[in-house]
Amino acid sequence: MLRLDTTDSRPLHEQVAGAIRRAIAEGECAPGDRLRPARDLSQALGVTANTVLRGLRALRDEGMLEFRRGRGVTVAEGADQRSELPSMMRQLMADAAHLGYSRNDLIEMIRGLS
To answer: Which residues form the HTH gntR-type domain (predicted)?
Structure first.
């Protein structure tokens, strides 16, 4: 389920693109899956259809989505490979554990960055 953070200061189209990236990274949307129409996504997210389309176009430009006439918008082959954040986080946790840091230590360090 896609959702936007109303406290986020990023533009809404970037949040839309980020929500879809996250869904792909977490396996909610797999390569070949068809996304709901922009109009439906806009209603679900509480934003305009143009905002959703702008986010979808950004993902198309990144190679994560494909626009096909008559087929709608689908997740591109290899899109799940493009999102490396989960594997980077696992590696970070392994590196931190090797250095003697706990998960809570990492969380506190990340909080200190913002």
So the answer is: 10-78
Would you say the pTM of this structure is higher than 0.85? no
- For residue 15, the number of C-alpha atoms closer than 13 Å in the C-beta half-sphere is 18
DSSP per-residue codes, 4-53: --TT--S-HHHHHHHHHHHHHHTTSS-TTPBPPPHHHHHHHHTS-HHHHH
**Integer Cα distance of 102 and 94 in angstroms:** 10
Contacts of 107 (CB under 8 A, 6+ apart): none
Domain 12-82, architecture per CATH: Orthogonal Bundle (1.10)
Give the distance from CA 18 to its chain's centroid.
4
* pLDDT digits 0-9 by tens, 34-53: 999 999 999 998 999 999 99
